[in-house]
Amino acid sequence: MARRLKVDEKANTGLVFMFQPLADNYTQPIAVFAFRGPVKGVELAKLVTKALILLENFGAVMHGIVSDGAQTNRKMWSEFGVCGKIDNFKNWFTLPVNDERKIFVFSDTPHLIKCVRNRLCSKQKQLRVDPNESFVRWKHFEVLYSMDKSILNTQLRMCPKLTLSHLELSNMSKMKVRLATQLFSNSIVHGLKFHKARHVSGLEDCNATINFCQRFNDLFDALNRKTPNEGLTPSGNDFKVLQSSLEWLNNWENNFRSGKIQASEFLTSNTAEGLRVTIQSSMNICETLTAKHNFQYILTGRINQDSLEKFFGIIRQAAGANDHSSTPTFLQLYKLLSMYSILKPPASGNCTLTETSHPKTLITVSELRSIYQKPTETSLIDLKARLDGLIEETEWEFDDVVEHDYSHAPVVNCIIYYVTGLLQNYIW
Description:
By secondary structure, the chain is mainly alpha-helical. The protein has helices at about 40-55, 70-80, 110-120, 140-150, 165, 175-185, 185-195, 205-220, 235-255, 270-290, 305-320, 325-340, 340-345, 365-375, 375-390, 410-425; strands spanning about 15-20, 30-35, 65, 90-95, 100-105, 125, 135, 365, 400-405.
C-alpha cells in the first residue's frame, strides 16, 4: 500500500546527485530533490537508476556510484543486489540498458576512516585484530601526545600536528576527516616507535597500534591518489596495498566470527562491509578501465564525496550562520551553483583567454548572503545584471565562481548571530 502523504508538510531534506568524471577535473550537479525526512532506500535506487540511464543517453559512460554509510544508502545497495558480507559478497550491478557493463559501488573513503577512528575511541577504547597480538589502544595516542607536548620546541616534536582535538572528540570534531587521517598517519607511527624505543611508560605494548596506524595510512593513501604520477595501476604498489588490506580485513573478521575475539574488538558490520566493497571495487574498476578503456591509471581521490561535501559547504556558508537553510533558499542556491561548470571556460579549447585583465569572480559568499538574508528586489536585479554581463563579455577569465572555505561557521559566531537577533527583537 502506498504511503499516505500530507501535502501541507514542508520538505526538510535535500537530495543532490552529482556527476564526477574520472578523466576530467570538473564536477556537475545533475539533479536535486526535496523530501520530508530521509528518502526510502527503494525510492533512492529508482532515482539512481534513472539518473544513470539519463547520463548514458547523453553520452556518459558510467562505471560506479559513491555514497556514504547512511542506512538508506545501504538499503539502496541491497536493492541493487550489492552485499558487503564476507560470505555473500557482491560489489556491482548492471543497468537494464546494458547488461554487459558493471556499475561498481563505493562507500565514501573519508567517511569510512572516520568510522574506524570513532570505533576505536568508543566505550572500550581498544580493538583487537589477532588473538595472539596485543590490543590497539586509544591510550597509546594519549601517551604519545603527553610526551610530545612536553617538548617545548615545536620544531623538535615527532608529531607536531597532534593536538588535544584529535583525542578529546566532540560531536563536531568527530565529523572532521582531517582529525581521523592525521591520527592514522606515518608521523604517528614514527612517534610511537621513537618513544617506545625510549621505554616510555604506557607504550610497552603499542606494536599492534603501530601496525594498525600504518595499515590505514597506506590504505587511505591508496584510495586517495590525486596526481597522475601516483595513480592506481594493476601493477603498482598501491594495488598490492589494496589486496593485502582486503585479506587483512577478512582475516580480522574471521577471527571475530570464529569467536577468537569479541564483537567489541572488531569494526561495526556497516564499516567492515563498506571497506570491503570499496577496496574490491577500487581494484575492479582499475582493472576494467586500464584493460578495456585505455586508462593508464586511476585517480582514486576522485572516487569519493569530497566535491559533494564542498557543494553543501558552500550552501551552508552562503546561507549565513545557519546550517539549516529553508527549502526555497536551498533550491535557489542549487540553481546558482549548478551553473559553475557550465559558465566556467575550459582551460584549453577554442576559447582564447586574455592575459591582461584581472580574473573575475562570478559571485562571492558575501554577495550570496546579502541576497538571501535580505531578498530585496534590488539585490536580485543586481545579481541578474552581473550574470548577464559576464555571459555577454568576450573575455572569459576567472578562477572560481564561488569563493569559500567550505567550513562550518564557528560556534561562537552562531551564538552571536542568534543572541543579536534575540536582543534586536526585544529592543524593537
